[in-house]
Amino acid sequence: DTAVSQTPKYLVTQMGNDKSIKCEQNLGHDTMYWYKQDSKKFLKIMFSYNNKELIINETVPNRFSPKSPDKAHLNLHINSLELGDSAVYFCASSPATSGHEQFFGPGTRLTVL
Amino acid sequence: QKEVEQNSGPLSVPEGAIASLNCTYSDRGSQSFFWYRQYSGKSPELIMSIYSNGDKEDGRFTAQLNKASQYVSLLIRDSQPSDSATYLCAVNSNYQLIWGAGTKLIIKP
After folding, report:
1. Where are the beta strands (DSSP E) in B1-109?
2. pLDDT tens profile A11-67
3. Which of A49, B6, B49, B98 has its CA 20 to 30 A from that of B87?
4. Chain A residue set in contact with B, beta carbons under 8 Å
């Protein structure tokens, strides 16, 4: 059974397009996250939701909009894609907001041409 | 700005030797510490968590924590080529994990 799943695994698109990435976890966790990992491999937090409520919103362009329809799902919509958005995006979940380990999805490799 | 520092490496270790990976952190209030392994093209995978000072052993892995020195380390005994990966240190601070940039470990056969 896949614990944290993401779709799609690969996404190639043109500059200016709008795209979405979906994430689902079946671990019963309360908290979900979006991370961006660039070519230098640094893992940067973008957003965190706890029971559908936004709790972390780092300095991310407002072209990025997360949505959590329920606590098992966290989607990421990106408007007007730019070259610099090319990266691997990871979804993760944890039992609660503080002090707990996080479990990662397989990642979505986004390439903007 | 809370920080977690790791040597980026690469750290090259002969097969069968002990690999030692180090991490320092800036938030004195941190209570939870994690080591993740990330193979190239894959997602980070939790390998160890530690919450109190001292050593915690799990198979060939030992995590060591010294809160006074704000230092956490990971020892890998009897290193295998399959241990070659990037190791990420993560420290809990203010409802999120602060991540180090990772140390690339290469185990030479």
Report:
1. 4-5, 11-14, 19-25, 33-38, 45-50, 54-58, 61-66, 71-76, 85-93, 96-99, 103-108
2. 999 999 999 999 999 999 999 999 999 887 889 999 999 888 888 888 889 999 999
3. A49
4. 40-45, 48, 55-56, 90, 97-107
Partner-chain contact A48 B95, CB within 8 Å: yes
Q: Distance between CA atoms of A67 and A73, rounded to whole angstroms?
A: 8
Residues of A with Cβ-Cβ distance to B34 under 8 angstroms: 101-102
According to DSSP, residue B16 is labeled T
Q: Do B32 and A99 touch (CB under 8 A)?
A: yes
Q: Within 13 Å, how many C-alpha atoms sit on residue B84's CB side? A: 12
Percent of chain A exceeding pLDDT 70 equals: 97
**Which 3-state string (H, E, C) describes A12-73?**
EECCCCCEEEEEEECCCCCEEEEEEECCCCCEEEEEEEECCEEEEECCCCCCEEEEEEECCE
Give per-residue pLDDT as tens, B1-39. Answer: 779 999 988 999 999 999 999 999 999 999 999 999 999
Which amino acid type is present at position B4?
Answer: V
Instruction: For tokens 């002990």, name the residue.
Output: B18
Residue A85 phi/psi, 5-degree rounding, is -80, -10
